[in-house]
Amino acid sequence: EEVTYNWEVNYMSGAPDCMEKEDIIGINGQFPGPTINARAGDNVVVYLTNKLHDDGVVIHWHGIRQLKTPWADGTAAISQCPIKIGETFKYNFTVEKAGTYFYHGHLGMQRSAGLYGMLIVDVEEGKKEPFHYDGEFSLLLSDWWHTSIKDQEHDLNAVPMNWIGEAQSLLLNGKGQYNCTLAVPANSKGANGLPGCKFTGNEQCAPNILDVEPGKTYRLRVASTTALAALNVAIESHNMMMVEADGNYLQPFWVKDFDIYSGESYSVIFRTHTRSSNNYWISVGIRGRDPTKTARGLAMLHYKSTKVSKRPMHHPPTTHRWNDYAYSKSFSNKIFALTGSPTPPVNYDHRIFLLNTQNYFEGQTKWAINNVSLMLTDTPYLGSIRYGLTGSFDQNSPPLTYPDTYDITKPPPNPNCTVSSAVYTLEFGKTYDVILQNADMLKAGDGEIHPWHLHGHDFWVLGYGEGKFSKKDEKNLNLENPPLRNTAVVFPGGWTALRFMTDNPGVWAFHCHIEPHLHMGMGVIFAEGVHLVRKIPDEALSCGDTGKMLMSQNHN
Ligand SMILES: O=C1O[C@H]([C@@H](O)CO)C(O)=C1O
To answer: How far is the CA of 202 from the centre of ligand 1 (A)?
Structure first.
């Protein structure tokens, strides 16, 4: 089947966290954008019209493989040109696999401005999920700043950098509370001095209410599109069974709360109490970064057996201490693929080591991979590589590893990196390992979480480890039941090992999903089998050198 959407991307004002903001990027006047609902095997068609008055736009369909449609991946300067002001671009792609996905802007920092929404793919007609549920909900999580992305981009580029700082609020389906708290009754004050919120329920920033019946089973789909924050989700008094991650089934396991990094999605199953005269909190808090400036996000689980106005009896669940990385790791290490899922090839053909460091380039703060910080060009790589336009980007091969002697427990000995548009050319039809290696930042003893997202593929997460990856770690890689995902985190001072197959002709970004970090160059470009790419729509290439090429062809 085909599901078609007509969308206009526009600036709008709103008060998602109760504070008015001007330059939110919405779709058809909605923030967050409309949810896409499709079934596995469907063709999704989105006619996207750019109604912004001062910028191009693209949308990336996060977690969708784009086999045979690499030009529809929605990455500016990689898979297509930004859609020009006033123009319409037709995205047309197949959603192969049931699961919980989302979509978002992928030009500059437009995702942070609110350009995102859910993309839910159900199993094919007549097929069943490997778990049962009576009803479902979805929560798209994001973090929110009151400054515009233009100001943020400007501040991040400044010499010295003016860091954007922590978010003003957390949003659940685009709703949060900045100047009041739901955690105390309307007429009292919270521990942080914030007054209790007084909502009639019609306010844009009134909390999400999830209506449930007693004694039923629900599926909660959660995706995180945060710009910066790692999050933790808990439902008061209800355990959750993890069943899906990034559109892949998990070997089910029970948790009281779970971590979710930007770019990830999960489905959890929970059972409601057979009788209840209470309502309960759903609580989302920050982990991995200083949470003191950003209040937790809250929603309410409302039992239909109880009045919706009844406040939950207890205080919302508190989020585990933000810098207890052992806690995060123990969760990540519990995630395995459902028995019977595809297993990785036991051997790899090529292995690439990617060292993550914070550096300077001409005084600007950057993030670099093997000392190279990514700078995109004006011509989409998919076109320039397909048509052999070698002048369009740096033709050197970026480094496949970093020096043996590099000490990851110290800031980079040379604080400066280089900046380049170079591309990793991967051999088609092979098995690749990527070892992400985290290291100290410019400030000694400081490290941060980076959630790495790969376009065009799922990868197997073979394992996480401490320190520098070495020969002895080899035997600890999980080749039996590693989860397939499209996003995986690398912890401070550690490494993460991934494996994937180069089976999808195209040019694919692999990058830190933290929006300011990508802006600061934290990514690489993989090109594979581009000669096998068939027709790329002209509209995808109408800028830079491919634009000139098309013009001269049309003249002939
Ligand atoms: O890229 C970053 O810069 C700041 C800090 O390192 C310098 O202010 C921070 O927390 C980041 O994630």
So the answer is: 38
